[in-house]
What does this fold into?
Amino acid sequence: GIQVEQSPPDLILQEGANSTLRCNFSDSVNNLQWFHQNPWGQLINLFYIPSGTKQNGRLSATTVATERYSLLYISSSQTTDSGVYFCAVGSEKLVFGKGTKLTVNP
Amino acid sequence: GAVVSQHPSWVICKSGTSVKIECRSLDFQATTMFWYRQFPKQSLMLMATSNEGSKATYEQGVEKDKFLINHASLTLSTLTVTSAHPEDSSFYICSARAWVTANYGYTFGSGTRLTVV
It folds into this structure.
């Protein structure tokens, strides 16, 4: 099956810093999503981005499908950005990476 | 749009009893829904694909007799954990895709935290 690798596994930032999270995947897919899981477990859909670039406020994402990777950019990070960020890819069903745990300190 | 509602949010049950978790698509029809399980500090693992009007498809290693899935309508899928044991304690979450909002991807319910005592 498809393999999804996320890096880094852990990231600690000071408030205001920028960061880049990476997602590599092993096969061609027609669906890629980035999620933020909040402390209560809810998955917040950040981007549906099987290809191209999207931006939403301080967050943006880029997927280069031909090279099988996606990047999530967080600018001017805030403490509320803390949590686990998951990349999920697939065609008919989603396979999740192991996530990046982000901690933003005040 | 594209809201998935999951109920209950949390449940505590005694070992040996069964627990039913509901997943509803509120504003769209979902012929296919997905059930995931997440252990603490781990990723989400797909358990099964729920197909409206037919049998669910289970991932390798998932016991179909323990995790009963029923998808009787286009808006409701249920997961029943039968004869629950403490090792079944986990976070269960469902998802579906609203094809009318194809640019949105898959939507997830808020999850159910199951504790078996």
